[in-house]
Amino acid sequence: MKFGTFDLDVISDGTFALDGGAMFGVVPKVFWHKVLPADEQNRVRLGLNCLVIRAPGLNVLVDTGIGDKFDSKYSEIYAIRHERHLLAELKKLGLEPQDIHLVVNTHLHFDHAGGNTRTQEGGPVPTFPRAKYVVRRGELDFAKNANERTRASYLPENWEPLEKSRQIEFVHENCDLHQGISVFLTPGHLPFHQSVRIESEGRVAVFLGDLIPTRHHLPLPWIMGYDVSPLETLETKRQVLRHALEENWLVIFEHDHQVPMASLRPEGDRLVAVPASVPF
Q1: Which residue among 10, 75, 135, 278 is buried most deeply as judged by most CB within 10 Å?
Q2: What is the pLDDT of residue 277?
Q3: What's this model's pTM, rounded to 2 decimal places?
């Protein structure tokens, strides 16, 4: 998609599955099952969408999918399917790992940062050898000090090689990464979760990460059970969706494998995701 001075491409690292009850929190199954049916183990199929932002002399990758550093048991638990693969998707765009200048992690959960590193003889190494990885300092500290509830979502092999190679670039506030590309704090799922804003020629696109993982999470109370502060998620969503309507954002859903990009339209008392057409 041509988006002002940028080229935007949603690429995929395949799909995986998570428990439907956990994905929709307090929402009863009788409601969410109608829009996202569960399998025999109560899991729902989710996308692993990443975003490539291209400008002259700059290639940015937002999140890196789930990667392939897992054994068969791990793959079975999460029903991981690499129907598409991050590096193969980049290759279709004419990009090799060394062509990526910036990798932005919305957060460091395994399904968002798994492709940060890859397995090599001797252990995991950075997948993108020339890139700076943009991470919030607070998020890395939160990952390193995970508790019993959050520990399973964090895998040190997704960030420790980046520390050794000194490729992590920390951000602390809402800030510009490049003219027209910025990150801003969107807490609730995690205290230091961030989203990415792309602005060009009067248009705005936002990669939402796990704030609103799919179009089915647009209703304010449809919040994941994985969120550490669901009431904070509620207020963050309220503000973000208000701005999205006011500024006619293109929104990018990280885990919606059917509608990854959409504009939002009010319909009665709810918001509807209208799949993005090209050009937007």
Answers
A1: 135
A2: 66
A3: 0.96
Q: What is the pLDDT of residues 201-237, one digit of tens each?
A: 999 999 999 999 999 999 999 999 999 999 999 999 9
Token pair for residue 245? 């309507």
Per-residue tokens: 41: 């183990």
Tens digit of pLDDT for each residue in 151-162? 999 999 999 999
CA distance from start to end of the chain: 8
Q: What CA–CA distance (Å, rounded) separates 257 from 12?
A: 9
Average pLDDT over residues 54-82: 95
Return all residues near 231 (Cβ < 8 A) that are at least 6 apart: 188
Closest CA to 237 of 256, 210, 262, 255: 210
For the chain, give the secondary structure using H, E and C: CEECCEEEEEEEEEEEEEEHHHHHCCCCHHHHHHHCCCCCCCEEEEEEEEEEEEECCEEEEECCCCCCCCCHHHHHHCCCECCCCHHHHHHHCCCCHHHCCEEECCCCEHHHHHHHEEEECCEEEECCCCCEEEEEHHHHHHHHCCCCCCHHHECHHHCHHHHHCCCEEEECCCEEEECCEEEEECCCCCCCCEEEEEEECCEEEEECCCCCCCHHHCCCCCCCCCCCCHHHHHHHHHHHHHHHHHCCCEEECCCCCCCCEEEEEEECCEEEEEECCCCC
Report how far residue 82's alpha carbon sits from residue 63's, in angstroms, rounded to the nearest whole number.
16
Q: Is 33 or 173 the better-scoring residue by pLDDT? A: 33
pLDDT-based confidence at 122, cuts 50/70/90?
confident
